[in-house]
Specification:
Helix content: 10-25%
Distance between the termini: 47 Å
Structural class: mainly beta
Strand order of the largest sheet: 1-3-4-5-6-7-8-9-10-11-12-14-15-16-17-19
């Protein structure tokens, strides 16, 4: 028969174990998304602008991913938080580089806000996706996302980010150390956001310093409005680049301004620009709890010291999403790209093919867990 002291000790240990379990959590989450995408005018430079391409892609509405969220309640309103997230393409199971697209640890308090350190989303991405995202049920359409080409890569390495919220006002700042990287990587920026009821608006700024010491400055402003089944959003973004970039700097810039998700907007004149701008207008409507539709128009233009760098682009996309359940949905999307000026579309080989227009559609299935 157990003594009273042994029984009390056992109860004490059980209580501690239960409290630790209740106060800490490790969550596995993810998205698996696959779609069939068809586009025209994707011929290579050897065959000209003609050429239809149909492919299975590893992410239509969303980029496929899996991740781990960790939260530890340390008492007094203070929590330790951490995240690891890998992105991959469902069609062939290939992970993106780096393997963890997010890898950060931090502290969060109801009194002082939140501090996180590591590879994470930058302030431009945070502001747009939380305040005037293209779709309320998915911040943007992964396979066709002109707006993301202005977000300086959406993430940054070696980042320290601080965020605080006071009532309807939220603000955040970030800094990243370049750490003598051969491609650069030093950043600084912040945003201010206001939201109340169905209205939200914000403004943000961020820069990126290349290895040469030259910089690219980016800023954005916009807002959204929700009323009943309706959702409206609008925004403006600008990138401005210093003159005199080195070939290494331009390779980094090319990754930021990648044309694949911008409807193939690229060509020899693409990286000759030192200023790019975009305006976005969107509307969404929820017909039923299961069925959502949305339509979006983007107008982009670029300019440079030489007239050959000048160009304009009009993007239009519309999508319908049907939720079979809280975790599984199917979608169909249509898009059109029209270019003017010296820019041109990229072909299937990734180089400019001289085409100035492209139509596409995407049909896919997404599961979230």
């Amino acid at each position: 028969m157990q003594s009273r002291s042994a029984l009390a000790l056992g109860m004490f240990v059980a209580t501690l174990t239960a409290n630790a379990s209740a106060q800490s959590s490790v969550q596995l989450y993810g998205i698996v998304d696959a779609a069939i995408r068809h586009t025209n005018n994707e011929g290579t430079t050897a065959t000209g602008g003609s050429g239809n391409v149909t492919r299975l892609i590893g992410g239509g509405m969303s980029q496929s991913r899996w991740g781990i969220n960790v939260t530890e309640d340390m008492g007094g309103g203070l929590k330790a938080i951490a995240n690891l997230e890998n992105r991959f393409t469902t069609d062939n199971g290939t992970p993106l580089t780096p393997y963890f697209q997010q890898s950060w640890v931090g502290l969060q308090s109801s009194s002082f806000g939140r501090v996180t350190m590591g590879r994470q989303y930058n302030v431009l991405f945070d502001l747009v996706t939380s305040t005037y995202a293209s779709y309320p049920y998915s911040p943007y359409f992964e396979a066709y996302k002109p707006e993301i080409g202005f977000a300086l890569g959406a993430r940054a390495d070696n980042m320290v980010k601080y965020m605080a919220e006071f009532g309807s006002i939220r603000g955040a700042v970030q800094v990243s150390a370049g750490e003598k990287s051969p491609t650069g990587g030093k950043t600084a920026g912040g945003y201010l956001r206001w939201a109340s009821g169905g209205l939200a608006a914000g403004v943000g700024y961020q820069n990126y310093e290349f290895a040469s010491g030259k910089k690219i400055d980016a800023w954005t402003v916009g807002g959204s409005f929700r009323t009943g089944p309706w959702y409206f959003n609008t925004g403006y973004g600008q990138n401005k680049v210093d003159d005199g970039l080195t070939p290494t700097d331009r390779a980094v810039l090319s990754n930021f301004w990648g044309g694949g998700a911008n409807g193939g907007f690229g060509g020899p004149a693409f990286l000759a620009a030192n200023k790019r701008e975009i305006v976005k207008l969107g509307v969404g409507y929820q017909f039923t709890p299961q069925l959502n539709i949305g339509a979006h128009y983007f107008h982009a233009k670029q300019s440079g010291n030489a007239a050959s760098a000048d160009g304009k682009a009009n993007f239009f996309t519309m999508a319908a999403d049907y939720a079979f359940s809280k975790r599984t949905d199917a979608y169909v999307e249509l898009d059109m790209t029209r270019l003017k000026g010296q820019t041109s579309l990229n072909g299937a080989d990734g180089t400019a093919n001289g085409a100035r227009s492209r139509n596409g559609y995407t049909i896919g299935l997404r599961h979230r867990f």
